[in-house]
Amino acid sequence: TYSAPSNALKIRVTVKPVSKTYESNGQQASYWTGTSVSAEYSFERDAPNAPSVPSVTINKFQLTAKLENISDARTDEIEFEVYNGTTLANTGRVTVLTRMATYVSNVTAGGKYRVRARAVNIYSTSRIYSKWSDYSSETLTVPAAVQNVTVAADSRNSAKLTWNKSDTATKYTVQYTFRE
User: Fold this and answer.
1) How far apart are CA 100 and CA 81, in angstroms?
2) How far apart are the first and last CA of the chain?
3) pLDDT tens string 120-141
């Protein structure tokens, strides 16, 4: 059994049988001479390891998913899937450069986004994919605008406001003025 280094892409093994020896005229001699046989194995054809969970940030309407310190040498690309709730919103594949992969996607207001990733080995005869990573934590966008705002008189000095709530809003600011 041989354990190759974690960054190895190929190994070549050569095996040569060696016979027992005997002594003849005061010298060591072999009963027979073996022939070397070599075999090569390419780790490039193996599926890469699943990546870690991507880190996700949202700035206004732009989501950025990142993976850093990608150590598997078979990982040539990273494929990202972006979900808004349970709906697939976007996918993309980026090349791994300096052991990092960054994917940018546009998002809509009022969304709850999470991302998962998988590694891709492109140097085999066909693309080989790792398993998917776990999903990132849910990241919220700016709240969507409220819809269906209505105002009705409640009394001579008060009004009743209603609107459809925004799922990602944590509070609302109501501004008003009086006219006589």
Assistant:
1) 17
2) 91
3) 988 766 788 999 999 999 998 8
